Amino acid sequence: xxxxxxxxxxxxxxxxxxxxxxxxxxxxxxxxxxxxxxxxxxxxxxxxxxxxxxxxxxxxxxxxxxxxxxxxxxxxxxxxxxxxxxxxxxxxxxxxxxxxxx
Length: 102
Hints:
Blueprint: H1 2-40, H2 47-51, H3 54-88, H4 95-101
Helix pairs in contact: 1-3
C-alpha cells in the first residue's frame, strides 16, 4: 500500500516539475507566435501585453496542465516499465527442493 502511495506521489511530483519547466516555456513560445501572427496582419501587439492579459493567463494555465499531464504519464510509464522489467528478470532459487531430493 505504501509502495502505491509513493508511486503516486513521485508521479505527481514529476508532473509538477514538468509543468513548471515545460509549461512556462510553451506559454512563452505561444505568446511569441501570436505576437508574430498579429504583427504579420498589421496589429502592433507585443508579447508582453499578450502574456499579461486574460488570454495569456489562459495560455499559461493550459500549458501548465498539458505539461503536467505529460510529465505524470511519462513518469508512470517509466515506473511501470522498470517494475515489470525487474519482475520478469527476477530469478528464484529454491534450495528446499534440492534438500527434498536427497
